[in-house]
Design a protein that fits this description.
The chain has about 270 residues and is mainly α. It has helices at about 1-45, 50-60, 65-90, 95-135, 135-145, 150-185, 190-200, 205-230, 235-265.
Length: about 270
Amino acid sequence: MQQSLNPIRRAKMRVTQKRSELKQFLYEAGNLVAFAGQTFREIFRRPFEWRETLYQCYQVGYKSTFLIGLTGFIMGLVLTIQTRPSLAKFGAVSMIPGMISVSVVREIGPVITAIICCGNIGSRMGAELGSMKVSEQIDAMEVSAINPHRYLVVTRVLATTLMIPLLAIYADGIAFCGAYVAMNIHDSTTFRHFMVAAMTHLEFLDIVPALVKTVLFGWVIGLIGCYKGYHARRGTESVGIAANSAVVTASLAVFVIDMLAAQITDLL
């Protein structure tokens, strides 16, 4: 009798554990939505933190140019090298610039840029705000009549929302340069001819949805990174947990947004 009750008891324990995990997930999602609503309201309230916003734009944009540029160059180089043999079998080498431009602008450039920013920027924001939360600097700002949400969160979210689309455009341009270098390994073509062949295959539905998608990527990366750091628990261990959770959650959000954007673009 006792042995027959053990499986039932274990099943009940698993159901209770799954229920608590679902409840915790719903609480976390609700807190994130409330945090996003507060951030959106604070954007339009004065005084505006222009200096801090510009500084965060410098941190997000300028300090990420080398990493994004190197990744974009390798991305265009490898994509061209890998696809050229298959297209050469069908005598379609002239289609390589168009294939590179469409694939990089529509999908690869925005997503790769966002994923790199999740690891580079999202983790930094989570660690910064987490350390400020642990050391009670955020509490000190509230006591000093300074709105920490406006000064710390809004400025960082605006910086990622503005800079990540620019970084994606920059990555696309560098990827074209890498593809041009890869094309000249086996063939001989001018940069002008390569760019004309690449641009003629781009349409309105290739460029505009990609830009809108990168704006959403920037908003989500900044919001999740700040949320994880702003709500870090007490203790130094929570700083690492906040940074790691910011990277994982933001990366997952990027893929979800990309999937939804692809479905909406396909309907158009």
